[in-house]
Specification:
The protein is of the alpha/beta class and 611 residues long. It has helices at residues 2-11, 13-28, 30-38, 42-78, 81-92, 96-104, 122-140, 145-161, 172-204, 234-262, 274-286, 292-297, 302-323, 337-351, 356-373, 386-400, 412-424, 438-457, 473-485, 507-511, 513-521, 524-532, 544-550, 552-572, 594-599; strands at residues 107-108, 111-112, 219-220, 379-385, 462-468, 489-490, 495-496, 499-504, 536-542, 576-582, 609-610. The strands form 3 sheets. The protein has a 7-stranded parallel beta sheet. A two-stranded parallel ribbon has the order 1-11.
Amino acid sequence: MLLGRTLVRQEGPRLLDLVEHVRQLIRSDRDATAAVLADVDPATAIRLVRAFSTYFHLANVAEQVHRGRELAGIRARDGTWLAQATERIAAAGVPTGDLAVEVRRLAVRPVFTAHPTEAARRTVLAKIRHIAVLLEEWDRATNNERRVRERLEEQIDLMWQTDELRIARPDVVDEARNAVYYFDELHRDAVPHVLEGLADELSRLNLELPLDARPIAFGSWIGGDRDGNPNVTPQSTMEVLDLQHEHAIRDALAVVDELRVDLSPSVRIAGVTPELEASLELDLERLPELDARYRRLNAEEPYRLKLTCVRQKLLNTRRRLAQDQAHEPGRDYLGAAALLDDLVVVRDSLLVHRGELIARGRLESAIRTLAAFGLHLATLDVREHAEAHHSALGQLFDRVDEGDRPYRDLSRGERRALLAAELRSRRPLAVSPPPLDAAGARTFETLAAVRRSQERYGHDVIESYIVSMCRGADDVLAAVVLAREAGLIDIHGGVARIGFVPLLETVDELRRADGVLSGLLEDPTYSRIVALRGGVQEVMLGYSDSNKAAGITTSQWEIHRAQQRLRDAARRFGVRLRLFHGRGGTVGRGGGPAHDAILAQPWGTLDGEIK
């Protein structure tokens, strides 16, 4: 109704009449609808399309708010999913020691990706979000319904006057900005509440959620997914990571500033540990730029002064990244580990000086939230097509001229043997950067950019390298050899900066899943890489391509069976399996209720982790 009023205000009653006429005709007479639309001039057609588009935006947000109300009612009656799980665990009598092990390695990672058919401008997303807040406020309104209604009308008018489409085609960084919008919202609200809820439920089982645990973290493909997207370059990858870090540091500063306001205990009333005193003394020595006013005003408030030092280190980190300078330990942060260490020192001091409620409350919530997002918001996955690695390596192997046939003529078994032998050797295949054609150079430079990004931001920023259209162990080994050339892998030096992930996308590959995994793990050199990565092998399951080729039911069944075979293969080789489900939003891409999908996985395949 409010949209109809907007259409009349902005465009006149004739547009509203046309919208209603088309809406009614579509339900009853498609031929008549087509006849009406055929007579519409282009300018009116654009307004008509925009009217329906705006309608669907409003219908979707109204449904989401309504579902939120329904879920709240269900949770009030039956408890949350976490509460229900807690009750089942208690009823099953799971030993506390066993449960503690599972909790420590619990790791859920939702991964964001850009999709060109689902692009929405950030300004439109913000308006939809504002409308959702107003609808929730309307529920609680007692005597200010008129004001809420007026604000809703304002937002709908603004939506109508806002162009949904960008004049310029969005680039990779624009796509990342849309994702960052969601990460910022999650950082402020949803994730702290989820983690607090998890900690509360575990306390009912006499368990404590370890501070260094990361039960939830986030991933992203935006800026790292090179397969079929020529716009994803090493340069755009670094730009996306810069953007994520800028927002992550801003979010961390907001958290630390709130803690600075809260943590005002004075040494005249409550003491501090020697560890906090030593840490603060070292910070004050290393941070001469810290405003002298803080040193004077907070001299008797060591917790607040320590947090001010943490804030200064965050500012120094931002400046270091902006100026592309080297990391200075003690003056800025490389990743989130040292930041979390600083906050844990504060927390431990509070615990032994009558500040347990403070330490266990707002401070632990902040530590867990910062652990979830780090200083990078989301870990970037890099994905490249299997043939890109073979193309680059073929040039290098043919150049050293050690075989009797060109690399491209080798069978999969022969390539696998050649690559495995090469991994065992200590030689480089070529100088760095290697002599490659333009496509091969881009593939190699992507791996080189991974190494530079880890040196610039820390090792958590990129962890996985995904090989798409993987059909055999040789496809993964080719990526490993090329990564060795880029300095990411050094078997003899005990270095494996990234893990390698076969992506099994078609029904044929899903049926051979255990063969691909066994072919990798039976190679001692590759097994060494898995051991260096914590004994975990990740495998990605593709829902979209298998759905398109075989249909929804066959795809789901083959993915289910593939997981069982992968589980058994991993157990034979004594490694843990992390399954990465490439589920999209639509049913055709594996979409559906995530909670039900997780519970439907085969026994033994959820070994504490899921992506």
